[in-house]
Amino acid sequence: MTSNGxxxxxxxxxxxxxxxxxxxxxxxxxxxxxxxxxxxxILLLVNLGVGLFAREQQRTLIDYATSIYDKSFASTxxxxxxxxxxxxxxxLRARDDVAALAHRSDLSLLITIMTSILLAGLALIxxxxxxxxxxLSRAQFSAALEGMPxxxxxxxxxxxLLVCNSKFAAMYGLDGAHIKLGTPLQTILEHQVATNACPxxxxxFMKESFASLSEQSFGTTEHQFRDGxxxxxxxxxxxxxxxxxxxxxxxxxxxxxxxxEFLACHDALTGLANRVQHREFIENRLAQxxxxxxxxxxxxxxxxxxxxxxxxxxxYGDALLRAAAERxxxxxxxxxxxxxxxxxxxxxVQTNTPRHLAAAASLAERIIAAMRTPFDLGDHQVVVGASVxxxxxxCDGTKLDQIMKNADMALYRAKSDGRxxxxxxxxxxxxxxxxxxxxxxxxxxxxxxxxxxLEYQPIVNLAQNRISGFEALLRWNHPTRGxxxxxxxIALAEDTGLIIPxxxxxxxxxxxxAATWPNDLRVAVNVSPLQFRNKNTAARIASILSAxxxxxxxxxxxxxxxxxxxxDDATRNELHEIRSLGVRISMDDFGxxxxxxxxxxxxxxxxxxxxxxxxxxxxxxxxSIAIIRAVAALGKSFSMVTTVEGxxxxxxxxxxxxxxxxxxxxxxxxxxxxxxxxAAVLEEFGKLAKAAA
Length: 693
Fold this sequence. Notes:
Elements: H1 13-24, H2 26-78, H3 88-146, E1 151-155, E2 161-164, H4 166-172, H5 185-194, H6 202-214, E3 219-224, E4 230-237, E5 243-249, H7 251-265, H8 275-287, E6 295-302, H9 305-312, H10 314-329, E7 337-340, E8 345-350, H11 356-372, E9 375-377, E10 380-382, E11 386-393, H12 400-416, E12 422-424, H13 427-449, E13 452-461, E14 466-478, E15 482-484, H14 490-496, H15 499-514, E16 522-526, H16 537-548, E17 555-559, H17 569-580, E18 584-590, H18 596-602, E19 607-610, H19 612-616, H20 623-637, E20 641-645, H21 650-658, E21 663-665, E22 673-674, H22 678-692
Parallel strand pairs: 11-12, 14-16, 16-17, 17-18, 18-19, 19-20, 20-21
Antiparallel strand pairs: 1-2, 1-5, 3-4, 4-5, 6-8, 6-11, 7-8, 9-10, 13-14, 13-21, 13-22, 14-15
């Protein structure tokens, strides 16, 4: 078949032109008008000839009569009038009457001829207008017929073709010979069968076609053709006998309907069941549960999927989701259902498993193993993983929302346990989930009610033996739980996105406070990776600095390598724009990630902050001091300041000084203090520095 549905080798233009000729009959109409005009002219000439001949005969007769009168009058004038004979005057009057009669006859005949000519002309004009009107009507009918989006054919009472349009001819690959006036329906159908423009059962198709067009009633039949097309034929009887049929190609419509029906209950990207079908499936299983029966729901998501999306882009992210879906299909039975319920979230409903606990655990292990295997995505190989949460009905719930919530809580526990594992739902998870929800509500209220405050911990320059700045540390004064350190709520704030308004409040408050300090003191503020999702971070920081009056070189932003995990130009450009303001950028928690050295090359940090875990392990792990020494040397080679966190004793402080670290921070110098205590801390540290000197 060609792209427009015409069988190969069919000349589509020829049927169209032939059909036009059959419909309009232009040549026949022109010939008819010529013959009509010729006939009218001939009739006029005959009428004129007959009239002239009659006039000539009449004139001959009158002339003959006049000559007789003239002879009679001459003869009479030679002889004396005899009594009883007509006198000469009477004869002259009779002759004049004959002449007058001849004149009137000529005039009447002329009028008759002229009237005949006028009437013939009017008749000719009327006939011409009638023919023109008929032609116009036929042209309009033809235009309407050819403008139809479907094929149409009209048959007489003997099922012979009266008229059809070009779409009908093209639909079945009919050439000029098959659409002539009077072509039997049998011939058209036989051609369709010969060219495979018919259903698989050709015999039944022909019988149905004859029956539908023979019956004097409306009807619609739909056929699936051998070439895949779906054709609908709607027939209606004609008042004069015969029928008219409209042929519609429904292939695209039926395909679109199937696609819409499929997409209504399937995920467009992976072809798996979507949330709608997933919910219906579970509801049906819950309704069909019998005594002792059960089924299992396994909720899973891909570990580190977001990193793939952020670093490689959504195209590779979509390819990963499709590949993961294919692997999941190989792990389940036909009776199970796999659904994609979110971005990188999937759910499997496992049914008909006698030993449901063991079967669920076995499937979860196979899922984790399958997802751990590297994915080849064209020119990239991606390693992710999966965490799985398991809930069993009816033990863990008899309602859809309840059992889905429990499976999600089990998934959350699996992710909290380090990812790459599975966890069954336990009742205590619900209690913890409720507590987390209450904490989230309280956190939202804290933003509105102003329950946050900042404390500041000194950062000491070892070479100069002075406080070079303070790090702003967030505290939450919970109305019932009291003072809460950030480790108890920051993770929740990041999960819910509340870290963005909280982080902006911290930045504004810290800058406003630091503006009141001596000009040689800096303030360090931690910035969450989520705050860099908005592309106007640099503009917001500039606005905050302007509003607070703090010099940009006195602000130090501490970021973790998570900010750079996306490895995109937009983030790096944002950091460069912030640094161009004069703001200093520090790499926080250095040494705890897996690729921090690469990030030191990708961005010119002003400072490296060595994580406090290395200081805490100095006694138990001798390698920690080697790491601190190496990082200090690395910072020196990069012309970066190195700050060690978590220094709690004077011994540790002196050890950091000996290893070449630039700054220290920790309880050995001072605990975090409220802003009101900063002046006192500066004074006390100054006295201690003088005493030590």
